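#dry-run=false #mode=assembly
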Amino acid sequence: NAGVTQTPKFQVLKTGQSMTLQCAQDMNHNSMYWYRQDPGMGLRLIYYSASEGTTDKGEVPNGYNVSRLNKREFSLRLESAAPSQTSVYFCAIRSWSDSYEQYFGPGTRLTVT
Amino acid sequence: SQQGEEDPQALSIQEGENATMNCSYKTSINNLQWYRQNSGRGLVHLILIRSNEREKHSGRLRVTLDTSKKSSSLLITASRAADTASYFCATDRGNTGFQKLVFGTGTRLLVSP
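#status=ok
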């Protein structure tokens, strides 16, 4: 997971609380993504940013907002957390070169009670 | 909904045996990728196969792609305990220059010493 950092690693929220998950990269890549992973499931795309200044909804955007602060940072905000948002959240990046692989951060484990 | 479905959901083998996992998807793709996830960690890219390729090798990994059947398989030869992880296929249907991956539900592989 070198090159992509996420904070915090763990978080417990009460229903209705808000929080921001932070993602930063040092690989100078254009595209950044936020996914959630629920137990026994693959990853589902929440929001993505093709480049600095642009963001778009993914498969499961409801209840979330994002900010692409600059090329390095892409944050995910939960305005009013719900138990259904209990999940592990992963940030990923990708360059626009011929390499198609995505690089993932270590994840944030969020529990909403 | 998720694009890929992996089969089997779980696989348990002995060290030295081969492990085969399959992925089926629903729509046309540009490429298909396989990722590994160790418990509690982010995903790591293993191998990519483009839609015009039928087979690809990387070390002990062999990937096949059958676009007519919309399926792919990942073979890990001579497995090791360190191969214990979850394996996900991910399909790329995005436009040239930008990529949105859609992940399958994963295969949990357990390799016993």
